[in-house]
Amino acid sequence: MPDEVADHALLKRFAYLQPADREPSDPALARWRREVKCASAEELTKVLKAQYMPSPTEPIDVRVLRFRLAAITRDELKARGAVLPPAHPPAIVRDHSIMSKQVRIAELAALWRAGDSLALHGDAELAGAVDYMRRTRARLLAEGNSPELVDDLMEQLHEKIGDELSGGQVVKRQTAPAYDAPGREYGKDFDLGSPRETAPNIR
């Protein structure tokens, strides 16, 4: 269902505790289904607790994605017979101050700069950046660039996105297939300034 509908107050409880998508087409969900298989129950429980927490910087589509990621995490823990953390009614962010947003921005930037991790792939707000990195790498390799050059360019891109995150700029998610998606993406900041271009031109 559309994100706006899934986020409706009357349906939010269902969205919060929805069944897991077993064959997702969304890249972030498909990636997360693979990631949870390799993680320990302890790691998954920690991530699930984070996925239950609202964020002062998440738009509707990211909040709905967070619920869907949590459903996959919960499904994997249930399959292992693990004890699930309490699933309280969907929490509401009550502090939308610039300070609370800056704290969250710092958390996202630190998580991104720490590199590949379970927590990174389980964070809905960073899904757009991860998707973009993967699309860009696939495009560069398909263009015939050497793996060594691509690795160097991706390192530069990773650093650039980290700088953008620190400045309050998020890479928006795209639903178009990798090779149909635009070469540039436009992101929106966390209400700390005017929107500006996110995807850096690394070529």
From the structure above, extract its key features.
203 residues, mainly alpha, globular
Taken in chain order, the helices and strands follow as HHHHHHHHH
Low-confidence stretches: 176-203
Computed structural class = mainly alpha
Count of helices?
A: 9
> Over all CA atoms, what is the radius of gyration?
17 Å
* First-last Cα distance: 38 Å
Percentage of residues assigned to helices: 40-55%
Mean pLDDT: 82
Number of domains: 1
Shape: globular
Can you characterise this structure?
With 203 residues, the protein is mainly α. It has one domain. The chain has nine helices and no strands. Helix 3 packs parallel to helix 5, helix 4 runs antiparallel to helix 5 and helix 8 runs antiparallel to helix 9. The longest helix has 20 residues. It is globular and about 50 Å long. The N and C termini lie far apart (38 Å). The C terminus is likely disordered.
